[in-house]
Amino acid sequence: MFSRIREDVGCVFTRDPAARNVFEVLTTYPGIHAVLFHRASHWLWEHGLCWVARMLANCSRWVTGIEIHPGATIGRRFFIDHGMGVVIGETAEIGDDCTLYHGVTLGGTSWDAGKRHPTLGNNVVVGAGAKVLGPIRLGDGARIGSNAVVVKPVPENATVIGVPGHLVGRHAEASPAREAIAKKIGFDAYGTSQDMPDPVAHAINHMLDHIHLMDERMEAMSAKLQDMGLDNTQTKIPEMECCEIVSEVEALAEISSTGDKQDR
């Protein structure tokens, strides 16, 4: 129980840059309060104390503005950002590392008993105001755009927008080599997918591939020179200054966005 609470609190720092410390998160984040209330009410629900569970869930709704039925199943490291107006139905199932924004509804489309609410896989993100309705499944890594209305299953790593929701693309996982070099230079926002439509992201991805290839070749050349006795230096290549690189990338992105606005 306490390990889950630590994970729920800890995941806030990776998904909300406004979070400053644990005390602030525990005392001022309604999304965390709602999740903690739900952990307790769900335990009561599973042990047959349904009325007490519903009362605790109602108290949570009054305090946080977030309504989670105690029968809903929620995985680890679940984060509700802002949270006001979020509704999660009784038979909803949410996987690990999912994120919901304010105004999201995981609702049903039938009055029949049984499974009638959505199932979310792992690493799913549902944007503000989106409605996911019915006993459908959102695959691992799915992204739902703000204010979308989704009534059909969504495949893994797919992005859905619009009313009714329609598929606009699927994002592939970045290669391990690209992720490694992005982490090395302290910048990974543009290294997360290999076919993003953003031209700046596309250019940065190719830069990461180029840097990785150059590193490999330099290491191979140094090893050959040492084997031939022509290079006895053991000086290690210094780490890249990530701050300067990140600032340059941010400046490039800002120039690109400004140019796009002017074109419009």
Would you give an account of this structure?
The protein is 43% helix and 14% strand. It has seven helices and 15 strands. The protein is an alpha/beta fold and 264 residues long. It folds into two domains: 2-170, UDP N-Acetylglucosamine Acyltransferase, domain 1; 176-263, no CATH class. The strands form three sheets. Strands 3-6-9-12-14-15 form a six-stranded mixed sheet.
Number of helices in the DSSP assignment: 7
Q: Report the CATH superfamily of the largest domain.
A: Hexapeptide repeat proteins
Low-confidence stretches: 188-196
Note the run of SSEs as H and E: HHHHEEEEEEEEEEEEEEEHHH
Assess the beta-strand content as a share of residues. Answer: 5-15%
Number of domains: 2
Summarize this structure briefly.
The chain has 264 residues and is an alpha/beta fold. The protein has seven helices and 15 strands.
Give structural attributes.
264 residues, alpha/beta, UDP N-Acetylglucosamine Acyltransferase, domain 1, six-stranded mixed sheet, 14% strand
Helix-strand blueprint:
Elements (H helix, E strand, L loop, with lengths): L1 H14 L6 H7 L1 H17 L3 H15 L2 E2 L4 E2 L4 E2 L6 E2 L4 E2 L4 E2 L4 E3 L11 E2 L4 E2 L4 E3 L3 E2 L4 E2 L4 E2 L7 E4 L4 E5 L5 H9 L14 H29 L14 H22 L1
Parallel strand pairs: 1-4, 2-5, 3-6, 4-7, 5-8, 6-9, 7-10, 8-11, 9-12, 10-13, 12-14
Antiparallel strand pairs: 14-15
